[in-house]
Design a protein that fits this description.
136 residues, alpha/beta, 2,3-Dihydroxybiphenyl 1,2-Dioxygenase, domain 1, four-stranded mixed β-sheet, 7 strands, 31% strand
Length: 136
């Protein structure tokens, strides 16, 4: 048996077409980015619970990988944010949609026991908002 520990999950990285718009979106979800992050070629923010959210403008990716093309088709990546309660799911969904972001799935009481909603970030990535319907 190998005594080497398994690798630990470190970050979610997104290739973004508009860094400022992406930072504004994720700030609405409470993610803290450094002042002036919109002008950087690579941005990292600590997520609650440990991992990082890493945003790289497409131009940065092309600087070291000139043949890179943004993914097409979507629907393969989703980020999920656990909210404090169902009311917070509703409020965050409304705040994001009111800010001009696409509401993919309005808040609903899912059969698996969660208040659940889905919005899309500026690049079309799904962002799920969820909270337990009842205390454990």
């Amino acid at each position: 048996m190998n005594d080497t520990p398994a690798p630990r999950f470190a970050f979610v990285g997104l290739a973004v077409s508009d860094l400022a718009a992406s930072i504004a979106f994720y700030r609405l979800l409470g993610i803290e980015f450094a002042e002036g992050a919109e002008n950087e070629p690579h941005v990292e923010a600590q997520l609650p619970g440990g991992p990082l959210l890493v945003l790289d403008p497409e131009s940065t990716i092309r600087s070291f990988h000139p043949d890179w093309q943004p993914p097409t088709g979507g629907g393969r990546t989703a980020l999920a944010f656990r909210c404090a309660n169902p009311a917070q799911v509703d409020a965050l969904y409304a705040q994001l949609v009111d800010a001009g972001h696409h509401g993919e799935l309005k808040p609903w009481d899912a059969f698996w026991g969660q208040r659940y909603a889905v919005v899309r970030d500026p690049d079309g990535n799904e962002v799920d908002l969820l909270a337990p319907l009842a205390e454990g």
